[in-house]
Design goal:
Elements lengths: L1 E12 L2 E12 L3 E5 L6 H8 L7 E6 L2 E2 L4 H7 E4 L11 H11 L4 H14 L15 H12 L6 E5 L7 H18 L2 E5 L3 H7 L2 E6 L2 E6 L1 H8 L2 E7 L4 H12 L4 E6 L3 E6 L2 H14 L4 E7 L3 H9 L7
Parallel strand pairs: 3-8, 3-9, 6-7, 7-8
Antiparallel strand pairs: 1-2, 1-4, 4-5, 9-10, 11-13, 11-14, 12-13
The structure holds adenosine-5'-triphosphate (ATP).
Organism: Virgibacillus salarius
Keywords: ATP-binding, Nucleotide-binding, Transport
GO molecular function: ATP binding; ATP hydrolysis activity
Length: about 325
């Protein structure tokens, strides 16, 4: 059921604690996102999962194999793409695939078959005999990921895979990666600063800061926890009797975190903006309140980021 299990993992570099008692579980075939500001510990965790860094404490299992004691078996199950490209730019795509395939111990036939399939999936087949030096940033990134998938890993680790790419290349890249994940059942573990990508793609998200996991949930769960949808309804001036009547109605509604009712405007904070707005409009219209206009500002993953990390530069 779980492709990856991280149990109480800690890691320090000299006096710097990079990971502090981190635990999480990632379901087979899911897309799991790790969000956190610079220096939060995302790359350190990715590197431990990729068997390139040893944890000081705790255990990690990938496909039920311990990453420390079963390192060689685990490496066959894991594909990894780091922030910096690892493609050999003075070679062609085929030469890069060839070197990687031989390092994975793949036969020539298997490299040719799988390589051709991936080059086609990533729309690199036409350019596969060109030097990588002539590729755009997006093409290099696609080749990086294609190489990580060459040995058909169970889990693909992507450390900020879309950093520096334009929106179109990011969208294309995610379309290809999600298709492969669906076709082959590959589990995806991704760190990114582009929160809107995770909102649509991730099955679950973990928030990490200063090496600690702050929260884990589906994008919807994390957004709903904030209860940060904001409703504003503007109407023709109400008399005191009507204000009291509406006040009584609102106090019976569930899911309302905070509200303020004034003679010409009603403001509400809730986790269920859309539902509460339609219920309220229906009630106000039935009560002959003359509505001028209403607004709904729904909370986003960006709000989750700001609430947890208090950073202004979240990219949404
Ligand atoms: N090899 C190392 N030696 C010393 N300190 C390190 C090393 N690797 C990471 N650190 C420190 O550990 C902490 C976590 O770093 P890490 O690179 O995992 O964060 P990150 O969330 O990936 O950040 P970014 O988004 O900037 O890549 C940081 O304070 C970093 O300086």
């Amino acid at each position: 059921m779980y492709e990856l299990t991280v149990n109480n993992v800690s890691k320090s570099f000299a006096k710097k604690v990079a990971l502090n008692n981190v635990s999480l579980k990632v379901r087979k075939g899911s897309i799991f996102g790790l969000i956190g500001p610079n220096g939060a510990g995302k790359s350190t965790l990715t590197s431990i999962l990729a068997t390139l860094t040893l944890p000081n404490e705790g255990t990690v299992e990938i496909s039920n194999l311990d990453v420390v004691s079963k390192v060689n078996k685990v490496r066959k199950k894991v594909g990894v793409t780091f922030q910096q490209t690892t493609v050999f730019s003075t070679g062609t795509a085929w030469e890069n695939l060839w070197i990687a395939g031989k390092m994975y111990g793949m036969s020539t036939t298997k490299i040719m078959e799988r390589g051709e399939h991936l080059l086609k999936e990533f729309d690199l087949f036409q350019a596969s005999n060109d030097l990588v030096d002539t590729y755009s940033g997006g093409m290099k990134r696609k080749l990086d990921i294609a190489i990580s998938l060459l040995h058909t890993p169970d889990i693909l680790l992507l450390d900020e895979p879309t950093a520096g790419l334009d929106p179109e290349s990011r969208t294309t890249l995610w379309q290809i990666v999600t298709k492969i994940s669906q076709d082959e059942g590959t589990t995806i573990f991704v760190t990114t600063h582009y929160l809107e990508e995770l909102n649509h793609l991730a099955t679950e998200i973990a928030l990490i800061n200063n090496g600690k996991i702050l929260d884990i949930g589906t994008p919807k769960e994390l957004i709903n926890k904030l209860a940060a949808d904001q409703i504003e309804i503007h109407y023709r001036k109400l008399d005191l009797a009507n204000i009291h009547k509406i006040e009584a109605y609102i106090s019976n509604l569930k899911e309302i975190v905070r509200h303020e009712i004034k003679p010409t405007v009603l403001t509400i904070m809730t986790s269920h903006g859309q539902q509460i707005l339609s219920e309220l409009l229906k009630y106000l219209i039935q009560s002959n309140v003359e509505i001028k206009f209403s607004e709904l500002k729904q909370a986003t993953l960006n709000d989750v980021y700001l609430a947890n990390f208090n950073e202004k530069e979240a990219e949404l």
